[in-house]
Amino acid sequence: MKRKVIQLAGKTSVISLPSKWVKKYNVKKGDEVEVIENGSDLVVKTNNSSAKESITLDVSKFNKRAFGCAMSALHKIGYDEVTLLHDKPLQVKELQEHMNNLFLGFVVIDQTAKKTVLKSIATDIETEFDASLRRAFLVTLSLADSTLELIENTNFDNLESLLNLENTNNQLTSFCLRLINKGMYKDAKKMQFVYVVIWNLEKIADEYKYICRDLSTNKNKINKDTLDLYKRVNIFLKSYYELFYKFSVDSMNALLEERNNLVVGINGMNARNNTETRLLNYLGSIVGKLYDLSSSIFAMHYDNIKELKQFAYSNS
User: Fold this and answer.
1) What is the three-class DSSP state of 48?
2) Is CATH 3.30.1370 what the domain over 54-120 is classified as, yes or no?
3) Fold for domain 126-304?
4) Are 51 and 24 in contact (CB under 8 A)?
5) Per-residue confidence of the chain (316 residues) as pLDDT tens digits?
6) What does the buried/exposed string (b/e) look like for 102-113 if buried means 16 or more CB atoms within 10 Å of the residue's CB?
7) Hey, where are the domains in the chain?
8) Which contacts (CB < 8 Å, 24+ apart) does range 225-229 have?
9) Which pTM value belongs to this model?
10) What are the residues facing 7 on neighbouring strands?
11) Which residue in 297, 304, 284 sits closest to 197, CA to CA?
């Protein structure tokens, strides 16, 4: 939509707020809104969170996997009430699984043979974002270290017990993405970059999940050299976590060098069996996904990097 700029008293430039948006968020005369500069864009935010988004979706033709993808997407987008239409009763167990894994704070408020309505009874709070993201990192680090410990001790039977950590990662990362999509992330300039980090963090936890499932029936001791690489990959993960919260060019340089070393080590490893081959593939995928965080983490910190400021001053 377009708005004309109105000049008041020859100095103040004013535009009107869209009436639909004003009604939706119950913005009244005298209320304060936050105006955020983002290059050529201005973002207008209100603290009024009374507006609820709802959607109706016919899932009659969805298979189990497509249904799961749709449920995940609707939660991340930020809907507060979801009406599912179906040509036969939904499996209660399957629906409950998705609600436990993703739709935290949602309850079924209406259910018939051909309709199910889910509604959020929780409050999405902007201030929970930072704590939830840090917990998502820490849970993933715990998953990484715990899988390695069990594999080192040939305690393969207990690997699947760690899948609850991956599920917690799903809950936390989905919650963070939901807050972003509901306009509850504090910095519009960095929003797309933190979104990439969160998305990849969930995919990294998936790789550890695949390791747990794949090696849970393994009976053979894993090669020490492979385990040493596993340990280095976990350190690599922790280093990216530290880079995210405390950026420095030196740390980033070291990580990018280590990425190359890990790729060489993984590609040059002689696997003794198919299990080790698959494990090395998972480790390689983790390294690749962590490397993909580099540009986004840099973009999130570029305005605070001393080395960049010095370069800018010297060329001004």
Assistant:
1) coil
2) yes
3) Methane Monooxygenase Hydroxylase; Chain G, domain 1 (1.20.58)
4) yes
5) 777 777 776 667 788 888 776 676 667 777 777 776 766 667 676 666 555 689 999 999 888 888 888 888 988 998 999 999 998 887 767 777 777 777 777 888 898 889 999 888 777 777 889 999 999 999 999 999 999 999 999 999 999 999 999 999 999 999 999 999 988 888 888 999 999 999 999 999 999 999 999 999 998 899 999 999 999 999 999 999 999 999 999 999 999 999 999 999 999 999 999 999 999 999 999 999 999 999 999 999 987 775 555 544 444 4
6) bbeebebeeeee
7) 6-45, 54-120, 126-304
8) 225/269, 226/269, 226/271, 226/276, 226/279, 226/280, 227/148, 227/151, 227/152, 229/262, 229/265, 229/266, 229/269, 229/280, 229/283
9) 0.81
10) 13
11) 297
Structure tokens at 32: 């304060």
Domains 54-120 and 126-304 share a fold: no
Tokens, residue 155: 């305690």
